[in-house]
Write a structure and sequence with these properties.
Chain lengths: 130, 130
DNA sequence: TCTTACGTTTACGTTAACGTAAACCAATGC
DNA sequence: GCATTGGTTTACGTTAACGTAAACGTAAGA
């Protein structure tokens, strides 16, 4: 019943990465699995961290950047100064993300145009045949 | 009056990259500036290509991926088979971009939460003082 | 008992995307 | 005339994010 635990290969399969990758993330301090003797035991929290890392990767973040974003979630920021610094960090990251969304929208728009041209060209080709 | 041309350092300054970077893109076949004797002369088209490359970089695309996307724009795809292949490529890329948008939105949502927590914590701190 | 599956550490190899430095040429201002 | 500015090629160096391989431990199953 308690919290579910995971082996390294379970997580590797779920997220479609190699075990090497997961151990590498640990090496870089991005996850901290417990140990049962020698073998690594991953908690649900570890699993979420890996998920967030991979989400970051998909939008081109480095592991360090993902680590920073993840660190924003944990409440180890006690005093007001740290909170204000964190808020600024969050705002900076937000701006980057918004720029990325704009870049993606621009690119999607470009793809729309390409697609239209393709379809038009195909239709013209068919007309000639018919 | 004619089309504007650019030196390598003009473009480097405009896009905030080094000249080394621009020459590297040429080395990889991403731009093909003309020459005035030894020196490179960049056209408006070259400038756009560099712009698109950097846009791709911002959302985590490799140079090769950017090159592929850029190649979608040029109409060197003559026959129907090539057009259909291109349409599939466009669709695949579109799916990737939509996933990226979702990832960004998820991350923005997370940042919203973090920000709320920060502000709440700061307000509580002020109350104690007042 | 032996092999098969899964885990471990250690360490060298690899690719992408430039950085950095050397050594050189060409026009320009003083 | 000569230093400065901006361009060139060539080539080795660097960082991130793993891949790959060796060499080993261990528990389960035929």
């Amino acid at each position: 019943m308690g919290k579910p635990n995971y082996t390294i290969s379970e997580l590797a399969k779920e997220f479609d990465v190699t075990t090497r990758t997961i151990r590498f993330y640990e090496e870089k301090g991005l996850v901290h699995p417990q140990r049962n003797g020698q073998v690594r035991v991953y908690t649900a929290a570890d699993r979420v961290r890996i998920k967030l890392i991979l989400r970051g990767k998909r939008i081109g973040m480095t592991l360090q950047e993902s680590a920073e974003v993840i660190d924003m979630y944990d409440p180890d920021h006690n005093n007001a100064d740290q909170l204000r610094t964190l808020i600024e960090t969050v705002e900076a990251r937000r701006l980057l993300l918004l720029q990325q969304k704009k870049d993606i929208d621009d690119m999607l728009f470009g793809l729309d145009e390409v697609q239209s041209l393709c379809h038009t060209a195909l239709r013209l080709g068919e007309e000639i045949i018919s």
